[in-house]
């Protein structure tokens, strides 16, 4: 084996978790050539959440790399390719690993290169679920059906948006989750006639209460987005005269929508097939403990692929905050173990605490910006300043109240103090009288 291809640490995957893990390594002591990041993408780790937001806006408003390389998303320094070089980190881009042998501690690339590691961090994230896999007819091989996961996908969509701007401008967006919510808005801003199709009775149904969803649906409708709820696409129809491009989307309720462009956001699945049979899995991901150690010694899994303990259960989370924090926790655990190998995680009497996941999500679309932290269980108590769908600056909160405590909170149009207060609510779950909460309204968040 070529000595140069041997590394003390390899991070497999070059996304959000990889970038934040690299930062943590450098802060905790990293020697040149100890760490390699192997990624099939062509660019250094970046804040993936930008791809469905500013990246899709018209020229003049759109963000482009290098502006959103990690770790700008959490207010740190931007890690450009030169940063990795300076730190002696080998950043191997356009390198897909097709085989992992955890027993011999080797990874093999599509071109046959073999890499050896002492410690592996699996950070391969998710791939978009394809409509053809869900049994939708006509969804294979059409040039105008787009998925959004990596920057190469976003570039294809941007090119199509620019091209279609000169011809047809009808877009059908499938899925009422984050991608549908954000891409639907971005396409509308680009002047498309947008139809948003989702099978649930409301947008972002896992998080939004009926009242919250009703506001956003009203706002989107007011902006000209057409909503098709409680329905799914069952067939895409094309004709030979338009190069096999989809022209019509048929729904299960019998409606047919015309389309020049289709964007699909119907979920994602962890990319862990190369580890099958070698590592313990759970809930579609790789099973880890509170330090992101897997069932295989010296192998860690972080970000979207990790299934980890949470309040007596195990969960898998596809969110950027978790990708950042789990990466940090894994590196802390790796470094702690090295400091004193005889005790797995306890170092010189200092016990590293297990990962404490703090659910916190956000989204931006049109002029809207919302944030949620904590748990959405219990009674939902709204506090409204302006919830008009025509408002230029809507502002409202929903608190989730359970057994005398505020356990979760959602805000539209929050300021920095309120957003920070939200994290405190998620962390401490403050006890408060219901009357006092109603009286304080939105200001309760900032006072935390
Ligand atoms: P990723 O960031 O997906 O990185 C995985 C990396 O592994 C990629 O570089 C991939 O190419 C590489 N890889 C995979 N397999 C291989 C292989 N075999 N060989 C080499 N490389 C490989 N979350 C939020 O909380 N808020 C948001 O607003 C939000 N918006 C989003 C918008 C979009 C368009 C998408 C796609 C996701 C969004 N998310 C959002 C989710 C968030 O981006 C993910 O949770 C996060 O990126 C997970 O980080 P990760 O490092 O685990 O995986």
Automatic annotation (TrEMBL):
Keyword Oxidoreductase: yes
Reactions catalysed, as given in the entry: 2 monodehydro-L-ascorbate radical + NADH + H(+) = 2 L-ascorbate + NAD(+)
Entry GO terms, CC: cytoplasm
E.C. code: 1.6.5.4
Keyword Flavoprotein belongs to the record: yes
Domain FAD/NAD(P)-binding residue range list: 7-326
Cofactor names: FAD
Domain of life, source organism: Eukaryota
GO molecular function, one term: monodehydroascorbate reductase (NADH) activity
Domain Monodehydroascorbate reductase 3-like C-terminal: 358-445
Keywords: Coiled coil, FAD, Flavoprotein, NAD, Oxidoreductase, Redox-active center
Recorded family membership: Belongs to the FAD-dependent oxidoreductase family.
Role noted for this protein: Catalyzes the conversion of monodehydroascorbate to ascorbate, oxidizing NADH in the process.
Name of the protein this chain belongs to: monodehydroascorbate reductase (NADH)
Species per Swiss-Prot/TrEMBL record: Ziziphus jujuba (Chinese jujube)
Full protein stretch here: 129 to 576 of 584
